[in-house]
Design a protein that fits this description.
By secondary structure, this protein is an alpha+beta fold. It has helices at 56-62, 92-97, 106-115, 117-127, 173-176, 207-216, 233-236, 253-263, 275-279, 282-286, 291-295, 357-361; strands at residues 7-9, 25-30, 42-44, 53-54, 130-131, 137-142, 148-154, 170-172, 201-204, 221-224, 243-246, 269-272, 328-333, 339-343, 350-354, 369-372, 382-387. The protein is 21% helix and 19% strand. The radius of gyration is 27 Å and the shape is elongated.
Length: 393
């Protein structure tokens, strides 16, 4: 016999359990209205580890509510959300003063070595990259109205990776300046570029990846969400009606595929690239391999123009960055077995150095050295070739 109760456990969503503080608390709802009886009335589904259960009967008893009056009882309703304060902005003069000091900015100097002087200059201007007093890179968050929401400050080493000896690893301009009553509402890094409506949008996690990718793959507008959790509906409302490709870091493909489902309600189209998921080795996965780590292995001129969908596999994105196939890339091996790879391949100003060919092929060296070309004599070295399809020698 089926029995219909006025109050039943909801089948949609869970709340924080008042006993174990896990998000495992199933609320009792009014079966006629769907509204929860009260935020404390429910059952934890961690039966073995918690088992907390506060029934409607106990709730009415504890609050001296007559069961006869239950039919007329007004169930608990969640309070209306408080209106959000308007976002605060950084003064334009502060922003302008930061647009200098690039000779002390380690990330910008790294980019000079990788992509060359002119591409670096254009990228700095494009994204309004700043420099802090201690040489940190400032990634300004400028919205579509051209207003500065805040600036994210990160210290980099000469190899282009974050310095691990600096704490905190990330600072914020509004915090450094101790601005009173500052109401922070972040936007996507590079959001101001959306004024160009002619290109599809590509989103990555880190700001560094966005600026490097913009040089290699200019067919996209490259934006960054600031971390795997930074990709959310609130930030992405500015993408309404746009074609978007997501490039998650290694290990984040499934997570971002789930986020893509929500974004499809806003965007014209959303796809998720598995390029990094398939290209990374096991060692690179552990190191948190991302798109910029993949791109800097190539010359910018080795990236072909987007192919037409008819010439590509139907499951591939027609705008996916791909090096020209069939080409080989020259490198050099010393008598001691040390591998020297000219970088950037088009500008040829430095060598990226690996301890051995095996260390390169198996990605055993997380952070290879980068040294100026004049410091190395290669005339007596063995010439080897990197296969641009497999990235191995």
């Amino acid at each position: 016999m089926n029995t219909s109760y006025k109050y039943q456990l909801t089948k949609r969503g869970k709340a924080i359990c008042p006993a174990c503080e896990c998000k495992t608390f199933v609320l009792y709802i009014d079966s006629t209205t769907g509204a929860p009886l009260h935020s404390t009335v429910g059952k934890c589904d961690r039966a073995d580890n918690c088992g907390h259960h506060y029934s409607p009967k106990q709730y009415f008893t504890d609050n001296n509510i007559s069961f006869e009056g239950v039919k007329n009882f007004t169930p608990y309703q969640n309070p209306s959300p408080k209106p959000q304060p308007a976002p605060s902005y950084i003064d334009a003069d502060i922003f302008k003063k930061s647009l200098q000091g690039y000779e002390n900015n380690a990330l910008i100097q790294f980019m000079h070595l990788i992509v060359g002087d002119e591409a670096t200059r254009q990228t700095v201007e494009h994204y309004h990259i700043g420099t802090s007093k201690n040489g940190g890179t400032i990634f300004w968050q400028m919205d579509t109205a051209g207003k500065i929401r805040t600036g994210k400050v990160i210290q980099y080493a000469a190899d282009g990776h974050r310095r691990k000896d600096v704490m905190p690893p990330v600072s914020w301009v509004h915090t450094i300046l101790k601005l009173p009553d500052f109401s922070l509402k972040q936007c996507l890094f590079g959001e101001h570029l959306l004024r160009d409506a002619t290109k599809p949008v590509a989103i990555v996690e880190s700001e560094k990846t966005a600026i490097i990718a913009s040089v290699y793959c200019p067919q996209f507008l490259w934006l960054a969400c600031g971390g795997s959790e930074g990709l959310n509906i609130d930030k992405c409302r500015c993408l309404k009606g746009r074609d978007v490709v997501l490039y998650p870091d290694c290990g984040m493909f499934d997570k971002w595929s789930g986020k893509a489902k929500a974004l499809r309600a806003i965007c014209k189209s959303v796809s998720v690239s598995n390029l990094i998921e398939t290209a990374a080795t096991e060692a690179e996965r552990k190191a948190g391999f991302d798109l910029s780590d993949y791109l800097v292995k190539f010359s910018t001129v080795d990236f072909s123009k987007p192919q037409t969908p008819e010439k590509k596999h139907p499951e591939q994105n027609p705008n996916e960055p791909q090096p020209e196939q069939g080409k080989q890339y020259t490198a050099y091996v010393s008598d001691a077995g040390t591998l020297y790879i000219p970088t950037p391949p088009d500008g040829r100003t430095t060598y990226t150095v690996y301890p051995s060919v095996e260390a390169y092929n198996k990605r055993l060296c997380q952070y290879p050295k980068i040294i100026p070309m004049p410091d190395v004599e290669i005339t007596e070295m063995k010439k080897v070739f990197i296969n641009l399809k497999t990235l191995t020698i």
